[in-house]
Amino acid sequence: MEQMVFESVSYVGVCPDCGAQMACRGTQALVGGRLRWDVEATCSACGGAAAVCGGTVPWERRDQMLSEHGPGRLRVSGSSATVVAVMRVLRAELGIDLPTAKAVARRVVTGEYEGTLPEMEHLARKLRQAGITAAATRE
Fold first, then answer.
1. Contacting residues for 9 by C-beta, under 8 A, at least 6 apart
2. What are phi and psi of 80, to 5 degrees?
3. Residue 83: beta bridge partners?
4. What is the CATH number of domain 72-138?
């Protein structure tokens, strides 16, 4: 069984019930081979609470995670880590076109591709399933 990988951030939102500031905690996690974004929020003014599970991380929260935790990097090695082999996995997982996949694959092969640690671990697992030695690291 593979280890769960996650990163969390805290931020302030607006309570939908009373309009006061609401304490929010968002978590991006790799669970069961899928990335998910979960948020728990509580309002100290009215006592309201909410939990939203299984969404996609908003860009501003992704940027916050990268700023607070630092980027994860995707590392590949070995003779199976060719640009073409990496491209196949990237196209399937990221839904990107061929020219974009080629550019991203070059960044992966040279160790320059980065994102949140859960994102990098997700891709590393998919690359390993395709027979490519891959790891998500934080430097």
1. 25, 26, 61, 64, 65, 68
2. -80, -10
3. none
4. 3.30.1390.10
- Rg of the Cα atoms in the chain: 18
Spatial separation of the C-alpha atoms in residues 12 and 134, rounded to whole Å: 36
Q: What is the pTM of this model?
A: 0.90
Burial bucket for residue 129 (CB in 10 Å: 0-12, 13-18, 19+): exposed
Helix (H) or strand (E) holding 1: none
Using CA atoms, how far apart are residues 4 and 32, in angstroms rounded to an integer? 8
Per-residue pLDDT tens digits for 51-86: 999 889 999 999 999 999 999 999 999 888 888 999
* 8 Å CB contact between 126 and 135: no
